[in-house]
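Hi L.,

You mentioned the student needs an example of a multi-chain input paired with its predicted structure. This one should do, with 1411 residues in total across all chains.
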Amino acid sequence: MISQVFILSSKGDHLIYKDFRGGAGNDIVSIFYEKVTALTGDQPPVVMNHKDIYFVHIRQGGLYWVATTTAGSSPFTITEFLNRLAALVKDYCGSLSEKSVQMNFALIYELLDEIVDYGYIQTTSSDVLKNFIQTEAVTSRPFSLFDLSNVGLFGAETQQSKVAPSSAATRPIQSSREQGGKSEIFVDVIERMTVVIGSNGLLMKADVEGEIRVKCYMPSCSEMRIGLNEEFSIGKSQLRGYGAAVRVDECSFHQAVRLDEFDSHRILRLCPSQGEQTVMQYQLSDDLPSALPFRLFPTIERDNGGRLLMYMKLRCDLPPKSAAINVCATIPVPKGSVSLSQELSSPDQSAELKPQSRAVVWKIARFAGGTQLSALFKLEVPSLSSASMLEVGPVGLSFELPKITATGLQIRFLRLSPIQPGPSQRWVRYVTHSDSYTIRI
Amino acid sequence: MSASSAFNDEKGGSSSVGEPEYGHDPASGGIFSSDYKRHDDLKEMLDSNKDSLKLEAMKRIVAMIARGKNASDLFPAVVKNVACKNIEVKKLVYVYLVRYAEEQQDLALLSISTFQRGLKDPNQLIRASALRVLSSIRVTIIVPIMMLAIKEAASDMSPYVRKTAAHAIPKLYSLDPEQKDQLIEVIEKLLADKTTLVAGSVVMAFEEVCPERIDLIHKNYRKLCNLLIDVEEWGQVVIINMLTRYARTQFLNPNINESLLEEGGSGDKTFYGSDEDEDEDEEEKEKKAEAAAMAKRKPYVMDPDHRLLLRNTKPLLQSRNAAVVMAVAQLYFHLAPKAEVGVIAKALVRLLRSHSEVQYVVLQNVATMSIKRRGMFEPYLKSFYIRSTDPTQIKVLKLEVLTNLANETNISTILREFQTYIKSMDKDFVAATIQAIGRCATNISEVRDTCLNGLVQLLSNRDELVVAESVVVIKKLLQMQPEKHSDIIKHMAKLTDNIQVPMARASILWLIGEYCEHVPKIAPDVLRKMAKSFTNEEDIVKLQIINLAAKLYLTNSKQTKLLTQYVLNLAKYDQNYDIRDRARFIRQLIVPTEKSGALSKYAKKLFLALKPAPVLESPFKDRDHFQLGSLSHLLNAKAGGYQELPDWPEAAPDPSVRNVEVKESVPEWTKCSSREKRKEKKVEKPFYTDSEGESGPTESADSGNFRLLALIAWSFFFFDSISSAHNRGVCLGVFLQTIAPSSALKSYELLHRITGEGLSVEYCFSRQPFSPDANMVAVQMQFTNSASSDTKNLHIEDVKLQSGMRVKEFPEIELLPAGETATAVMGIDFCDSTQAANFQLCTHTRKFFVSIQPPVGELMRPVFLTENEFKKEQGQLMGMNEITEKLTLDVKCRNEHAIVQRVTTAANLSRVPCGSDKECRFAGRTVTSGSLVLVTVATKEEGAAQLTVNCEKMVIGTMLVKDILQALTQ
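Structure written out for the whole complex:
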């Protein structure tokens, strides 16, 4: 049971407050905010209490989503509910931010009214809710050059319209209903890598978690078929086709997915509901089909002047045509490092010493496949001892690999039936993120 | 609009947050008059004829409410619009009403009549929403109206409205607890509801209003178990939690042998929680416990209902809702036999890939479980490795789990992993890692030395916190076997020069004092240094200096007498009274004077007694007395409203009590367990055939009616034999249920709601003779109109059939109002083939192409043969007409009743009485040509069986064999 639900901005402003059961004081919101901000550390505990009121909160979109409960209901139910609520608000308002919440007070209030009745969760399915929700979402589209570039001279469509701006996927699901907006469907294949490379350069652990997300703005789409690679296989024993198989260890599907064609043709059939949903989640541990995207060759020594020399060679083993972006290597350095001098192999890199986190941060905006970058960092460390050499590392790497999946999963085709009247657009994106990419030294 | 924004400018942005035109608190407005002006503006908009203006005004008002501002003075203006036709406006008015009705009771009453009208609306959505708002208006005066509305809605046609009624129950209960008895009646009624939509909501109401009335659940228990998988996910959570509690009161502890063991063994285990001891004990204890158990009672047999619950909840571990997964996990943890609990591990590990808040809660529970059932999570050890991106609280919890999972085989991997964690930036985490190493070392004696060496190496770490934490842990480890490690103590003594963290200094001093005999040379020197710096130390260190001094004085007074005196003198004038107290106390105790009493003789014993080694144990050790997944468990404190999970009943619950339970008696006298899923629907056939054996063969053209008659006759026979009047009523209920064919048969989808634009059609083979034409198969169709508009002129057109097939269309349905359901029967002559019948289903606006394809088992109707007739007919259908297959029966399908049930589900056949219990025989005729279909299932040992089908039509025979095979083996 939920007593109150409220949404706070990160600054503590009340955005939404709804009391389902009554009986709580008016200052409850400020009590919560005081409690949250009083705590240090990167994350306050999920459940906090004040007298006999229990706050459960999550953070999403830079906002605090809080539910209070008095009776012993399961914290799982409430965290899961808050996550769903945030997802629903995102679906209905287009994006999740302080601004979008402020512009859609009435809509969110109406949503809450339908989702929760007297503290009991009724439903969180966007398909069901669509029948009840009447209010239209208000959106603000930030001014973007991308939008302008789509319109050529005299308003003619240009070549660039072949690519949708990244903001295209953030819009409310309901606007397509009345405004006859574009019917579009977005399919994202998102993978996250967790890699640990030992100090001897051997791969110690590799783990890829992936998901296929569908965001649907098709009012009349009854069935959609997503074809995966024919040679896609699950588990170790089964191998399909010739050549390199695309393999995952484990795979789970959204309950709306029908798998009758999955075994024979690797086709997922589903009736997508409006809004965003994760259609499939999969996981692969240890043997990745392709080489690791990055290798680091560090050399660390002391020079005569008592300075610490770190010579870093970073190689990107992606295929030559693709590139990694926003690469950032964090190299922990000994305590008491005072200054850094650097020699970088190309001008589009940057590096700086962050004294409070005791690390050198080396940033590379774009890193083409098959190339190699190197950097020499000279650190001034007073009282450098041999023990402090041990404090260097492990190096953490964060990056983004657009148009690449680590497992090799591809979407062969995307078919909608019945054939959509009018223009409909289908977008497929692939991206691999680093979740935790650690190289021990 | 413009007026209001002008006003804002004037106000100078006193509320900086939010959209300027929304949500100004009237009270915070600077100028009183303009306040009025603005409200007039809103009121004017509300009074206007244009819906758009009303909507705009309502949006602004709701925005005010959303931000917690007061908008109550607009009540009269808003409440007028409750009857507004525009549904958008109406909904916002509802939102407003629910918020302010309590404050403005008199005015709120004005709106009641609108809701009462709404309760009679033909549209189910409006009925439901009227009820919801009406029940949310917290005005005592309308309690009778609410009660009436709830009662009416509880028997509404639409399950959605019934669901809303269930939600309204707790609201009314909180408004007026005196209505409890009446509400329980409604709950009882709704509990009997068979739709999944209602089940979750009514259990929520049950849990709030009358959780103690567990007797209400008895007769709905099996139904709830069977419906569970289809219930809405939030409902599942509530039902599972309720059933957990129910099972704890009704069934026996499946781990009764093990739990005896635990009780017996707990005395030995208090000090060393180490596992090797446990393993050794286990065997001995097991024997004892077994002997005891044998003496006490017969071996434990799980109640089939208990099994049903476990079986039906298991698939829910795949749910994508974390709350459902956790609910099932705790159910298994609390209810399942130990051997089966393992299945939940995988599901819980999967949740670790969710949001960090969910991870946090999952890990808390995993930590508790991993203490009790370590084996369960061992295969997933790697999943608990820490990632550099995890937040600290998750890292610490993962460490906890890793420590709990450590054993002799995996400790080396775990320690290697821990080593890398120590390099982390995150200090709290490093400290936790060092403690974890310490705990591994105490639990697993093999690695104690390795760990100790590792920790000693950490003493040279540059980070003081790391060193300090290591010292504290080393101290605890050394206490276990000090004699071997005097060099470590020496090493630590040296550290006193550098280390500044008070806790660490105190630990070192204590260690030196305690084992001063192992380091006789160093100890006095340490004391000397400490005496020097005494005044600058922290309190906790000072106390340990005094302790050290006292201990040295007792063992080595020659060297340290003066030093001790000096320290005690310093302490005498300390600011802290604890220290002054301690100094005085120790002086009295150790320094011999004339006055000193008997105690000083024992001073050495007092100070240098052998102290027990500390137990490093998990903070999660005792958490499992809280129900897993509950708020109290997470907080490790009893939260308000926490209901303790009842203990298992000590003795087996009196079986006669359970016999009185109504449902329990059903399987007893039918001898076929209705516990099987879908069973209730099919009890019909075994019933008939059982009685048929007695009454002898009767030729009947109309098998359906015959069956019904036999059933009724048979039921009367049984009514006499059942004494309790209560049971009779229930029996009758069961029969009526079984007779209704629509509820009993598998239905197929003809038209999906989305494809049909709100019209959905399902069909089933009713297995009733189709009266207009005996050669046709009756197909019963159910039309549901879930669109918002009516559907007219439902009929069939453009039938496309293979040659020979015929269709008898159903009469046109003139009107199917929105939200309604209609049923029609059509007949299809499939010519004994499984070819599909294709046709168009037409409404007044649209046409849909649909097709019906029959399973082969529906192409026949049952006939009644005696055993001799059966054998004779079978003798004539040999050779090409006989198909034989060997098979292994499914585990759940090894008894006669299960076989009969599965075969008759797969094909519309009737059972032929038979002398041998190893054989089941079935007979039927194809609908069109009337060819005989004879099926024999002969069972052998170990689930082996042989299936024989004799049929003139070979195609039908082969297909039937396939279908029955599948039915029996799965």
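You could point out the following to them. Chain B touches chain A through 86 residues (CB under 8 Å). DSSP finds 45 helices and 15 strands in chain B.

Best wishes,
N.
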